[in-house]
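User: My collaborator and I are trying to settle a disagreement about how two of our proteins should look. Neither of us wants to argue from intuition anymore, so we agreed to look at predicted structures for both before our next call. Could you fold the first one, then the second, and keep them clearly separated?

Assistant: That sounds like a sensible way to settle it. I'll keep them separate. The first protein:
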Amino acid sequence: MESYLARRDEHIRSATPGPAAARALSDLTDEAVRALARTASSSLSGRWALMALGGWGSGALLPDSDLDLLVLSDARPEQLRPFVEALLYPLWDAGLHVGHQVRSPKQQVKAMRDDLTVCTSALTARPLAGDTSWGQDVMDRCAADARRRAKSLVPQLLERPRPGSPFLLEPDLKEGAGGRRDFDELVWVSAVLGGRAGAGLGPLISAGYLSTEDAEILDDCARVVSAARWECQRNGYGHRMSLDAANELESVDAEAVQAALARTATTLTRVRGTLGGETVAAPPRSPDELFELLVSGEGGREALETAAVEGALERMLPGMRALMSCRRPGLGHELTVGAHSIRAATLALHPPAGDPALSRSIESREDSRVLLAASLLHDGGKIESGAGHADRGAPLARDAAMRLGLSHKQADDVADLVRLHLLLVETALRDDLDQEDVILRCSAAIDRPELLAPLHALTAADSRATGLATWTAWTATLVDTLVSRLDVALSPESDGAGLASRGEAVRSATLELMDIASDAERRFVGDAPLRYLAGRTPDEVRRHGRLVAELAASPSATEVLIEVSDGPAPATAAVTVVAVDRPELLTRLSGAMALSGLDILSVDAYGGSSGIALDHFVVTSATARPTDTETFVKFERLARAALRDRLELAVRLEERRKHYPSRAKGAVEAKTRQRGWATELTVSAPDRPGLLHDIAEAVSANGLDIRWARVQTIDGIARDVFHLSDENGGPVDDAGVLGHVAMQIRAALRPR
C-alpha cells in the first residue's frame, strides 16, 4: 500500500488534469486492489468476483473520489468475512474512502430493484479481480433485468434532482445541473435501454434519443468538466468551482467549464423531454416568438437559455451564445452574463408583491418590447472586460433592437436605457436623496420623462436577476423614493428638482401646526436645514422639535432622547436620537445600537445652532429575532451608559463579534473623493457587529463628522457610503486628513 499511495500522490500532483489522468488513477487503484484481493482470497473457496462501481467503474477516478466496491460471491458468509476484512482494512488504514457491498447474484438483482442508488452505481460496474467473466455475466443479467423494468425505471432516473443552474458562477461540478451527474444520468439511461452495464451512450444513439454529434459534444464537455474537477480537488476546493478557484487555478478555463456545463444541461433537458413524451419547446424563430417567451416570464426562461446555448438565437442576437458562458463576477452576482440577462428580461414585466411604485412604472409602459429588449441587452457590453460596460453596450443594444424589429425611435430608447441602467440604483445607494443637486444631476442624465418608468422597471429586473441579496426591500424603497423625486424633477411643470420648495413647504406647514409651542420648538423648525425638512412630514418635524426643546431646557452631555416609528421598508424602524452635540456622538450611538442587536441601514446627522444634535437612523434587526420595544429600551439604556463613559464599547463589541463572527471574506477598502458639495467616503469590508462604530471612531479621531451615511450589505460584504464634513459643517478639502482617515479605517477593519 505504501508504494501505491506514493505513486497515487505523485500522479495526483503531476498529472495533466482530464480523463486520461482519471483513467490512469483508476488503473493504479485497480492494480493495488487486485494485489490485495489476491492475497486476501488465498483461503477463500467458492466463486467470487470483485467489481468497481460508480465513477471508478467508469474509469473516471478523481483525487477525492470514493472507492465503491462490490464483492459478488456464492460463498458462505463465514468464509467471506475474513476475505472482505483483509481486503478493506488496508484501504481504510491508508485513509481512503471506501464503500463496499457484499452480495450474492440474487441479492444484487433484488438490491438493484429495491434501491435506485444501488442500481445506478452498478450500471457502470467493471470487473477487477476473481472470476471476472462470471462477475461481468452477473452484472449483465442485472442490467437485463433493469431493461425489463425500463418502463418504470427510466422515469425514476429522469426525476433525479438537479440543484442549481449550469450558469452559476460558483457551480457544483458534480451534483449541480450540467455537472458530472447529468452526464452519468445519460449513461445510466443508456445502460437500462441497452440492457448492458458499462454500455456508454451507444444505446441512446441507437434508439434515436441522441445524435452522434451530440454524443461527441457530451464527451468533450465531460472532458472539460473532469479536468476542472481534478484541478479543484487536488487544490482543496472540492466539487465546487468557487470564485477563488476560478481566479487562482490557471489551468482551469472557467468560461470553457461554463460552456460545457450549459451544453450538458441543455442536452439532458432535451433528452429528458423526449424520453418522457413531453413536447420540447422549439427555439424562437422570429422576434415575435422571442418576445412571447419573454412576456411569459419564468416559464420561458429555460427555453430561451437552451436556445441561446445551442446557438438558435444567433441570427437575431449575434454573440448571445458567447454571453451564456461569459463570466463577469461582481458583488452579489450569481450567473453568467447571458443567463443573468435572460433572467432579467423574464422578470421585467413581473414585479414582486408589495412594491406598488414599481408596478405603476411597469404598467405605464407604452410598448413592452422596449423594456424587454433593454432588459435582455443591458449587459451586452460585458463581452469585453473592464469598466464602462453600460456605455459600451448602448450602441450594441441599438443595433440588436433594430434586428428585433423595433423602430429607430424605439431602438434609441433601448440604447438610452442600457446606457443608464446603473444610474438609479447607484444613486439611491450612494447619494443623499434629500440633496437638491443629487436629484438635478440624476434628472439631467435621464433628460426625457418617458424614460423614467422603463428605467425603474429595468433597474429592478437587473437587480432581482443579480441575486436575492441585491434587490432588498430597503433597496427597493430607496429607488422608489428616488423615482418619485425624479418624476417631479422631470415633469414639464417643474423647474428643477423641487426639493428646496418642498423643504420650505414642510417648514411652513409645520409652523402652522404649532399653535401651542415653545420658542425653542419654533426655533428648531425655523433653523432646520432644507435637507432635513425635504425628507420629513410636518408631523415628524413637530415631534422632533419637541424632543430638541425638551433637551435644550436642561441640556446634559449624558442625556439622550429617542423616538421610534415604523421604517420606510418592511422589517425596518426609524429611530430619531436627540442628544447634546459632542465629539464621537455617532461613534457611541452606533456602538450602542450594535450591542442592542440592531443593524444600521442609513444615518442622517443634523447639528443645530443650539448645540443639540438630531440623528435619524433607519435600522433593522441584526439577528433572527425581530425588533420590539425591549430592543429600543435596551438601546436607550446602552446609549446613556456610552455617553457617561460607563460602557467599554470596544471590549463589548469584540465580545459580540465572537458570537456573531463575519462569515464573508474580502479585502478592506476605504476611498475618499469630492462628489458635488459632499466629501464622500466609501468603505468596503466584510460585515461584522459594530462596523459603523469603528468607522465613525476613525472619522471622529481626525476631527471630522459623518453627516450622512448609507449602508448596503451583499453576501456578507458591507459597501457603505458616508458624507463627511469638517467641524464647521463644510466639505473636507485637506487631502492629508482624508488619506489618514482612510488609512485608519483600513487598519481598524482589517481581520485580526
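The second protein, kept apart from the first:
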Amino acid sequence: MKTSITRVEIRYEQDVVYARQRARRIADLLGFDRNDQTRISTAVSEIARNAYQYGRDGEVEFMIEGTTPAQVFTITVRDQGPGIKDIQAILEGRYTSPTGMGRGIVGTRRLMDQFRINTEPGKGTEVTIGKTLPVTAPAVTPDVLMRIAESLATTDAESPLEEVRVQNQELLRALDELRSQREELENTNQGVLALYAELDEKVTQLRSADQTKSRFLSNMSHEFRTPLNSILALSRLLLDRTDGDLTLEQEKQVTFIHQAADAFSAQINDLLDLAKIEANKVNVKPREFMAEEIFSGLRGILKPLLADKSIELVFESMASLPPLFTDDAKLVQILRNFLSNAIKFTHQGEIRVSARPGDDGQTVLFSVADTGIGIAPEDHERIFDEYTQVETAQQGKPKGTGLGLPISRKLAELLGGHVTVQSRPGEGATFTITIPVRYAPAKDEQVAALAPGDITRHPVLVVEDDAATQLVYQSYLKDSGFKVFPAQSIREARQTLQRMKPTAIVLDILMPDENEDGWSFLTEIKANPATRDIPVIVASLLEEQDKGLSLGAEDYCVKPIERNWLLGKLSDLARRAPLKKILIIDDEEVARYILKGHLAGTGYTSLEASDGTADLILAEAEQPDVIFLDLTMPGMDGFEVLQRLKANPATRAIPVIISTSKTLDETERRFLNQQALAVLSKAAPNREKALEAVQEALCKITELYRQKKEGANHEK
C-alpha cells in the first residue's frame, strides 16, 4: 500500500534545495529524530541534484508505504534524462564521474534502509529510497497525512541561505558527536591498555607456573622412573626364567612386585603422556596392520587381571574389518584405558570388545561394553575432564588418577577420530572410538616414515603397487629372518630410503599409477652414492633380464616369484653384512645389564663403560659402530661426553643414541637433535625400540663409512 504525501518538480537549481527542505520537514512530522532527518534530507539532496544535472523534467515524490508496524517513508526521484551507462560499476564502487555522481549514489545507498534504481538508455532514471519509521513514531493514518499536508501548505520555502545555515548547524552537531565518540574511544583505549597490562602479568604468572610444572615432571621422571624401570626390567627377567627357574612362591612374590611397580609406572606415564599431548610433542607413527593383531595382544595382557571368575572377557570376531593404517600403539593405549575402566567398575557379567566398519566405509568403530555400575548422563562429559572422577554409592571411593579417559580422547583426536560414551546407572557403559581406516595427517605434517624394525630381522624394501602381491611377499617372509617394508609407489620408496638402508630392494617395473617406472627408479638408485650399494632384485612380468642386469640389478625374476628362490637370494645377501660393535655408556649397572639383555642373541658385541674420561678413551680405541649414552651421570655428564665425542675427529662420526629417563627441555632437545642420532626413554624398557634405534644407527654409520671411503679414494 502506497500513499503519496507531496511532489516537488526539479526544473531549476533552487528546486534541489526545496526538495531537501521538504524531505527534512516531512521526516520531522513523521517522528524521525534529528540524525535521521539529516540522513534523509542529505540523501534526497544528492539524488535530486543528479536528476537536475544529468536529466530533465525531474520530479521528487514523497510517500508512505506499508502498514503498521512496518511503515516506510519512501522518496522516489524520476527524470527523463539519458540514463546511466555504468550503473553496475557505480553500485560496486568501481566508478566515479568527474562531477562525483558515483559517490552520491553510493553514499545515499548507505544512508537509507532501502534503495532501488531503474535506468535505461534514453528512458531516464528512477531512484527510490526508503527509511523505516521509528518504533516510537505514531502510526501514519489518513488523519495524520492530512495534518502533514496542511502543515506543508502553510510552511513557506526557506531561502538557499537559510538552508546553508541549517546544513552548517547539522555539520556542527555531527562534529560534536564525533568529538564525544573520540573521547569515549580514548577512555575505552585506556581501559583496554590496563586490561592488557593485567593479562601480561597473568601470562607471566602462568608461564612461571608452567615452568615449575615442567621442572617437577622432569625431576619426578628421573627420580621415580629410574628405579621403577630397574624394578620392572629385573622382575621381568626373573619371571622369564632368564637365570633359572623360580619356585611357585617366588614367582608369586616377584609377580606382586612387578604388578605394583607397573601400576606406579602407569600413573607416572599418564601424567607425562598428558603433558606431552598438551605440548604437541606426540608424533603419530602409522603402519598397516589387522585389528586381530592388537586384539590378540589385549587378550594376553588383560585376561590375567580378571581374578573375579564372575566376569567374562569376550572379544568378538574381527573378520569383517579391512586392514588399518594408523598408529597401533596409540589405538592399543586407548582400548587398554577403556578395558581398565571396565574391569574396575564391573563386578559381574561380561566385558565385550568389538569392532565394526563405519557406515561411510572410511572409518572403523572399536567398542568396549561392560555390565558394570554405569554412568549418569549428566556425568558423560565430566569423566573426560582431567583428574575428574565420579563418586557414586555403587562405586565407593574413586579409583585411579582420573587421566585415562582424557588421554584417550586426546589420542583419538590425534588419530583423526573421536570418543563417545553410552551409559546409564546400573545398565553398564559402552565406550567407542571412531577412527579413519587410513590415517591422514594434517597438510602441514609429513607422514611418519616406517620404523627400521627389529635388527634380528633384515629389512627388505618391497616396491610393488599391487596390494595382493604385497601380501604375498609378507606371507613369504613371515617367520623368516627378513622383515618386509612395503612401498606401493616410488614416492613411498624414496621416503623409506631416507630413513633406513635395507638389506635388499625387491622392485616391480610396471607402476601404472606413476609418472615414472621401475627402470628410472633403478637407474636413480644406482646413480646415488647413498643407495648404489643396496642390492636390487627386479621382479616383473616383463622378460627383460638383460636390461635389468645392465642397469645394475643384483638379479632378475619373472613373476610369479617362488618363495624358496627369494629366501635363498635374500639369505645370500644378508651373509655379506659384517658383525657390529656397540658401546654402552651408563653409570647404572642395572641399566647396562638391561640393555645388554635387549641386544643378547642379535650377534652384536657389547662393550660397557661407566666413567666419562674412560668412556672417551674406550670409544676412541674400540671405534664402536654405535654408542648408547646416558645423560645423568656423576662427574662428566652425558652432554659433556657427547660434546667431546663430536669434537674428536676419531669419534665424531660414530652415531650416538641417547638412553635416558630425564625429561628434556626445549634447549636440551634441540642440542640432542643436532648431535645425537636418536633419543630413547628409559621410561618403558622396550627391546624392540632399542633394536630399532640400533638398526637406524647402523644404517647411518654404514653410509658415513662409505662416504668417508669414497672421499679417501677420490683424494688418491
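Some points you might bring to the call about the second protein. The two ends are 103 Å apart (CA to CA). Residues 510 and 517 are 6 Å apart (CA to CA).
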